Amino acid sequence: MKYTNSIEIALPLEKVAQLLADPEHLPKWLRGVVLHEPLSGIHGELGTTSRVVMQSGQRKMECTETITRREPADLHGIPEGTVVHFDREIVGAGMWSVVRDRLTAATPETTYWESESEFRFSGLLMRVMALLMPRAFHKQSHQHLQDFKAFAEQGKDVREEKD
Fold first, then answer.
1. How far does CA 131 lie from the centroid of its chain?
2. HSE (CB half, 13 Å, CA atoms) of 64?
3. Mean pLDDT for each 10-residue chunk of the chain (163 residues)?
4. How large is the C-alpha radius of gyration of the chain?
5. What's the pLDDT at 162?
6. What is the 3-state secondary structure (H, E, C) of the chain?
7. How far apart are CA 46 and CA 150, in angstroms?
8. CA–CA separation, 110 vs 22, rounded Å?
9. How far apart are CA 152 and CA 93, in angstroms?
10. How many angstroms from the chain centroid is the CA of residue 51?
11. Taking a C-beta distance cutoff of 8 angstroms, is the pair 33, 51 a contact?
C-alpha cells in the first residue's frame, strides 16, 4: 500500500526542518508516542536506529525505526532552493514501512511538506486491516501532518487535547 499526503506550513523551511528533526518535540505532535529512544547513533541523524513504542487506546505497538536519509545533514543555514529529505524505515510485528518526507520552501515564509508512505504486511491481522481499512492508514498519516502544523504554527500540544 502506498499513498502521499501534503500540507503547507506557515513557517520558513529551516524552522520547519529543525522542529521536525528535534526529538524533544515528537510527543507534542505525534499522537500516541510513548517512547522514541535511540538504540544506536544520535537521535534523528542518518543511520540512527531507534526503539519506538506507540499506543492507541489499549493497543500498544513496538517497532524499530532507522533513519535512511537526512539531507542536508546540517539544518542551519539551508541554502535557498534546497529540498530537505527525511526518510525512515519502520519495522514492527507483521509490518514494514518506509516514510519519505520532503520539505521545500513554498515562499520565504512558508514550507510545503510532502510525505510519501509505503507499507508491506506479513502478518495476517495486519494484511486484513490493510485490505479492509486502507483509508485509516492514509487518514492517520494526514492527521500527523495536521498535528505538526498546529504545533509548529500555534504551539498546540496533542497531549493537551480533551477527548
1. 23
2. 10
3. 95 96 90 93 91 88 95 94 96 91 97 95 73 77 95 94 66
4. 16
5. 65
6. CEEEEEEEECCCHHHHHHHHHCHHHHHHHCCCEEEEEEEECCCCCCCCEEEEEEEECCEEEEEEEEEEEEECCCCCCCCCCCCEEEEEEEEECCEEEEEEEEEEEEECCEEEEEEEEEEEECCHHHHHHHHHCHHHHHHHHHHHHHHHHHHHHHCCCHHHCCC
7. 27
8. 19
9. 32
10. 14
11. no
Nearest to 86 by CA among 107, 74, 72: 72
Evaluate whether 142 touches 117 at the Cβ level (below 8 Å): no
AA letter at 96: W
Cα-Cα-Cα-Cα dihedral sign, residues 46, 102, 95, 93: positive
Q: What is the per-residue pLDDT for 121?
A: 85
